[in-house]
Structures are given as structure tokens and as C-alpha cells.
Amino acid sequence: MLDKDEYYCKVFVNKDIERFQLNRIIMDIVSGAFDGFDIEAWWGNIYLKENEATKPPWGKVNGDDFIYWLYFMDIEPSDEVEREDYIESIAKLMTELYNNGCQVIAACDFEDEVPKYREKL
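Predicted structure:
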């Protein structure tokens, strides 16, 4: 079992679409179910949130820095997933989001093990 604190991952996502549309894309990629709050995949839970750092009065809308991107996902591992499978699953999710026109970057202890997609397709 992975330590949820050690393997927590925040993934910033930038695409000018509604949150429900991005939720649907993520559910399709991970073959997960949405329970009203998060998306449950076999390897972990994904919480998609709008990034408050983009909202006035303190934020920028779509700034160049990823901390100002429109959305972020809080991702936590499931109890039964192995480290390699968990990181591979996050990498696949990020790659597929990029293939769907999103900019994607992770901020976590293992961020060097997953791709970085800052540029737009």
C-alpha cells in the first residue's frame, strides 16, 4: 500500500472548456466513474477543481505560469495499487489529456517520472 501523503500528486491542466467537459474526458481516459465529487479509477481517485488562482481579485486568467492554468487535479492512490502502476497511470492520463489538446504538468515528489506538456498542440 502506498502512503497517500507521499504519493499525492497535483496535476495542473489548461484547456478552455467547461469543467464537466474535462471531467468527461478524464473519465473516458481512465475508464473511471464519477461519484459527484471525484473520479474513481482502479489505481486512484482524481478530484478535478477549478483553479481559484485564476480568479480576480488575486489571480490571472490563463497566465503563462502553470499555477495560473484553469484547472488542477488532486490525485491520490488507491489502497491496492503498486507504485509503478500508479505512476504509469498518471503518465498515461497526462499524455492522453495532452492528446486531447490540454497543457498538463504535475507537481509532486515523483514529477520527474511523468511527462511535462507545457506547450499547446
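Summary: The longest helix spans residues 83-99.
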